[in-house]
Every structure is written in C-alpha cells, then in structure tokens.
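Board notes (copied after class):
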Amino acid sequence: MVPLVIASAALDLCPALAQAPAAGPFDSTSLLAVAAGHAREAATRIARPARAPRPDAAATQYLAGLAQLNRNQFDSALVPLRAAATANANSALYHGDLAFALAETGRWSDAEDEYRAAVRLQQANPWYFVGLGATQAAQAHWGQAAASYTLAVAADSAVVIQQLIAPASDAFQQAGMAQALEDWARMATSRFPNEPIPWLRLASASYMRRDTVVGFPAIRRFRSLKPDDRVGAMLYSEYLLAAGQYDSAAVLAHQAAPDSSMRHLAAVVMYNVGGHLLQGGQFARAAEVLQEGRELASASDQPMYDLYLGIAKLRMLQVFYNEAAQHSDCRKSHAADSMLTDVAHLVTAGVAADSAIANQVLTGAIQQYRTAIDGFVRQCRR
C-alpha cells in the first residue's frame, strides 16, 4: 500500500481571545458604615467654630437618632435624624447621618439626595463623596459613582481604604473608564500589596492592552494570594495562551471551568489551544484538548469543535494507516476503518461551522482514505 498525504486545508484557528472577566458585585454596606464614621468625625472637625457655638435646637433630635444608629436601629433612626436635618438644613453632619440611615434601609435615591446636600455644605469632607458614590453605584449609576469616588480621592487620598477598593474598581469598569480603572488598581496595589482584588484588576487591564510586562507579574501575584480563585485561573490561562504556553493554558482553563460563569471562556481557550497544537503537529494532544473544550461549549458552538477535532483525528489516522499499510498489518485494517467513520461523522457535523473547510476535507482527504482503507480491508480478507 502507498501512504497517502492529506491535502492542506486552511486552519485559521485563532479567533479573538475572550475578554477577561469582571470581578463580582461589592458589599456597599460595609463601605458605608466605615465611611459614615469617618465622615462624622471629619464633619465635626471641619465645622468646629472658633467661638462658642450658637444653641442648636436640632441637637437633641440628632443625638437621639445617632444613638439609634449606633445600635443599628436604622429605621428607628430615620425620624429623629430627618427632623434634625429639617430643623437645621445647614448641617452637613445631620444630612450625612440621615443619608447613611436611608442607605442602610435601602432607600438609595433618598440617601443620594441627602449625601448631595452634605457634599454641598461641606465639600472638604471626602467621606461624603464616598457615601454619595456608594449610593449611586447601588442604583447602577456607574459614571456618577466613578466621578464621586474620583472627587473623594482628590479631596483626600486617605479615603483609599480597603473597603473602597472593590466598589471604586467596579464603578470605573462599569463606566468604561479603562485608564482610571488601571490607575486606581496601580494605586491600590501600592498601598495594599496583600489585597488580591487590585492585582486582578491590574492584570485584567494590562491583558486588554496586551501588556505582559505589567500583566504577568500582576496575575501571578493575584494567584499567590488567591490560588483557588477560578476567575484568576481563567485570566492566567488567557495570558499563558497568548504567550504560547498552550498546555499550561489548557490546564488552568480546565480548573476554571467548574464555575458556570467561566465555562464559555474556558471553552474558547480550549478551542484556541487545540488549534495551535493542531497547527504544531501535536495531533493527539490537540484532539484531547478539543474534546474537553467541546464538552464545555454551548450546543451552537459544538460544530466548530467537531470540525477541528475531526481534522486532528484525521491527522492521527494518517499516521496510523500509513504505518499499517507499509507493513501490511491487517490487524489494524478494521481499526482504521472505524477511525475513518468517526472522522467523517465529526467533519460532517462541522459543516455547520465552516462548510468550505468541511466539504474540502470530506470530498478530498476523507474520500481518498475511504477508497484506500476499503481496498486495504478487502486485501486483508483474501
């Protein structure tokens, strides 16, 4: 038997890489609680008069409301705090604590109004900007939240506390402020080097710019802080894929895949890895990775995996058949026939993904092998 060579086919297996995933939602309550305490202290300090203060008729109501705030009785605190803010509309302190109570009871729009009043009265107090940003973020007003957090930091960088890292990052990302997000992440990694989220944000921003000089150390640092995090595993796999470290990329994508939100991204990485391995002549490994990717892919995407899985197995068949034919090894004739049937099934399923390549393989290489293998099987029967 004469060995056959498969006709070359266009194997453009490198679609755009999936974007790095965003971090999850933040808990604004803890941020607001911390910000409220700082705001109260700053408001008292900023408003401290040089002379003896005038009597404040609203002070008694405010103190009653504050006592309830301190006991986390937020609903009960609303009545005296609202009365105090109404009686003394020029007190940033009263408006600020009323805003905090409203936010803790989920009245985000009303809380935003009160924080705006506090900001107008006391623009030097950065913590009111933080509270304002948190209420805006809770209403998905991301651009406004990003602006409020930016103003807070501009007023006093002391507001960059750990509780603010995730909310500010989310606001910048959701608002599409890529450079602001990266700048924030850099500042946060410098100030809190053991806080994982800024490293992930910096790695994500760097990945979008294809900046591996910054990105690789950032994602490795995140992985050292949160080695079991599947978002980090997914992003690292994309970095490794772009760097040509295909086997490592596949391993990490497989680790991330049990998270349902990562399945599609993991499947895309597997597809790309399989394509590169196929192009590099590692047919068995390419088939293994493409099969794993197919199991993660949606039903509508599976024909794409079937096509190149079929091509990978066809390449494996080429080696298997040629060796059997050269040595007239009839023990392998039926195995070759079964392999070709499997390949034809896969490539036929792949017509839905790329009919030009699939039909080229079906009418070219597969037809050649069908003729040759049928002859091999007949010869072995004689």
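Comment from the instructor: The chain is about 75% helix and 0% strand. The two ends are 15 Å apart (CA to CA).
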